[in-house]
């Protein structure tokens, strides 16, 4: 069974540009969550999608957005990049038994390392 | 959201048993306790999950007292490859309730 796949693995962008990151969950998983990880702030929740609907959202500015497709693949977009957006972006998928209950494990991808210069 | 408190760092030697305790005084009735392991530049990896008493798998054991206000992750006979950050999470749902604290940085020494 293939794991969670995130592309690209590494990315370098310039301030002001926008970027799109992709996440392919494990086959059959319908919940996809995104996290930002930086040395200073640790792992911070961005948003979660379930069946193409954003179900939860963290405390990030509107420059951060996402979507989920009918095949459960998800993308996140960051517009007008700032230096502080440099981070490891992680995607996690899960197969909730009932409305996303935590009694199932989440599988994380390797992440996309974004560097903004 | 149930807040968790863990030691920031721990050191151990190869072959020893390591116990990492997590406090979660405000745990709710339906909350589960889940532990993840993370190596540098990789995504977190699920280790173990429990609701009450003791849970054991091939990697670790999780001890949860009757009041559920704390939990202890036990790693038997650690090796150098167990050097990682360990996160304790408490909650019912993924998404916004899936809050990672700073974790415990475990260093296993030869």
Describe this entry's structure for a reader.
The complex is a heterodimer of chains A (117) and B (110). Chain A is mainly beta. Chain A is 0% helix and 51% strand. In chain A, the strands form 2 sheets. In chain A, strands 2, 4, 5, 6, 9, 10 and 11 form a 7-stranded mixed beta sheet that branches. A 4-stranded antiparallel beta sheet of chain A has the order 1-3-8-7, with no helix packed on it. The mean pLDDT of chain A is 90. Chain B contains no helices and 9 strands. A 5-stranded mixed beta sheet of chain B has the order 1-9-8-3-4, with no helix packed on it. In chain B, strand 3 and strand 4 form a beta hairpin. The radius of gyration of chain B is 13 Å and the shape is globular. The mean pLDDT of chain B is 90. Chains A and B meet through strand 4, strand 5, strand 6, strand 9 and strand 10 of A and strand 4 and strand 8 of B.
Main attributes?
heterodimer; A: 117 residues; mainly beta; 7-stranded mixed beta sheet; 11 strands; 51% strand; B: 110 residues; 5-stranded mixed beta sheet; 4-stranded antiparallel beta sheet; 47% strand
- Biggest β-sheet of chain B, characterized? 5 strands, mixed
Low-pLDDT runs of 5+ residues of chain A are none
How many strands in all of chain A? Answer: 11
What Rg of chain B do the Cα atoms give?
13 Å
Give the end-to-end Cα distance of chain A, rounded to a whole number of Å.
37 Å
Roughly how many Å apart are the termini of chain B?
38 Å
- Counting helices, strands and paired strands, the structural category of chain A is mainly beta
- Proportion of residues in helical segments of chain A: under 10%
Mean pLDDT value of chain A: 90
Summarize the structure.
The complex is a heterodimer of chains A (117) and B (110). Chain A is mainly β and 117 residues long.
Task: Give the topology.
The complex is a heterodimer of chains A (117) and B (110).
Chain A lengths: L4 E3 L2 E4 L5 E6 L6 E8 L3 E9 L2 E5 L6 E5 L5 E5 L8 E8 L12 E2 L3 E5 L1
Parallel strand pairs in A: 2-11
Antiparallel strand pairs in A: 1-3, 3-8, 4-5, 4-9, 5-6, 7-8, 9-10, 9-11
Chain B lengths: L8 E5 L4 E6 L8 E7 L6 E6 L2 E4 L4 E4 L5 E6 L8 E8 L12 E6 L1
Parallel strand pairs in B: 1-9
Antiparallel strand pairs in B: 2-7, 3-4, 3-8, 5-6, 6-7, 8-9
């Amino acid at each position: 069974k293939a794991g969670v796949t995130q592309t690209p693995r590494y990315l370098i962008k310039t301030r002001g540009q926008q970027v799109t990151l992709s996440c392919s969950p494990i086959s059959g998983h319908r919940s996809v969550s995104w996290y930002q990880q930086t040395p200073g702030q640790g792992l911070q929740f961005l948003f979660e999608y379930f069946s193409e609907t954003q179900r939860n959202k963290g405390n990030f500015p509107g420059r951060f957005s996402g979507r989920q497709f009918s095949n459960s693949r998800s993308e996140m977009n960051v517009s007008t990049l700032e230096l502080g957006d440099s981070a490891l972006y992680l995607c996690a998928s899960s197969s909730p038994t009932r409305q996303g209950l935590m009694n199932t494990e989440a599988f994380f991808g390797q992440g996309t390392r974004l560097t903004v210069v | 959201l149930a807040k968790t408190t863990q030691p920031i760092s721990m050191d151990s030697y190869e072959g020893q048993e390591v116990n990492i305790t997590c406090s979660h005084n405000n745990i709710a009735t339906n909350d589960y306790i889940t532990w993840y392991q993370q190596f540098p530049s990789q995504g977190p990896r699920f280790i173990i999950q429990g609701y009450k008493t003791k849970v054991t798998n091939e990697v670790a054991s999780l001890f949860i007292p009757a009041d559920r206000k704390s939990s202890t992750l036990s790693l038997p006979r650690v090796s150098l490859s167990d050097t990682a950050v360990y996160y304790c999470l408490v909650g019912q749902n993924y998404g916004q309730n899936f809050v990672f604290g700073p974790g415990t940085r475990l260093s296993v020494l030869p």
